[in-house]
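Friendly challenge for the regulars: who can give me the C-alpha cells for this chain first? No prize, just bragging rights.
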Amino acid sequence: IRASEGRNLKIGDYKKTSIDRKLLIRAKRGKHIEKSLSQKVGELLDRYLCELEKNGYPMGDDLPLIRSSHGKNSFHTPLSRQSITKIIKRFCRIVGFEDSYSSHSARATFITQALERFDIGKVAETVGHSSVVMTNEYDKRRKNLSKEMGDFILG
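First reply, four minutes later:
Bragging rights claimed.
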C-alpha cells in the first residue's frame, strides 16, 4: 500500500474473522480497496493491537491504526510521512542494504517482483492502479532492460 494509505488506516479498517483478516484501505481518488492479510501479518497486527490496549491506549474504531509514539495525545496522531521514511531507512540499514530506500521505492520493488509471477492486470488491481499503463511504469525490469540495451548498442 502507499505510505499515505497506511498512515490513514483506522483501527476500524482492520477486520478479523474466524477464517481471515483484511484491511479496508481508502486509496487515491476515493477508491476503497479490501486487502487480505497473510496469517503472519494478521498475527503481528493482533499482537500490536493487544499491546496498545494492554498499555492503556484508547482503541476506538476511528483512531489511527498506526500511531505516533511521541507527544501529548499521540494516540490521536497517525505516523507522519517523515516517520515512515525513517522507519524504512532504519530497517534497510538493519538488513544490510547500502542504498537509501523510500516507501515509494519499496512499492516499485514490490510491483516489479509481483510482475515476475502474476499477470499485470492482477498486479494493477492489487496495488490500486486504475490502469495497467501505470503499473507498467513501475516495472524496473523494463527500465533495466532499456539501460542494458543502450549499453549494448553503445558497446
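The CA atoms of residues 109 and 140 lie 7 Å apart. DSSP finds seven helices and three strands in the chain. Your move, everyone else.
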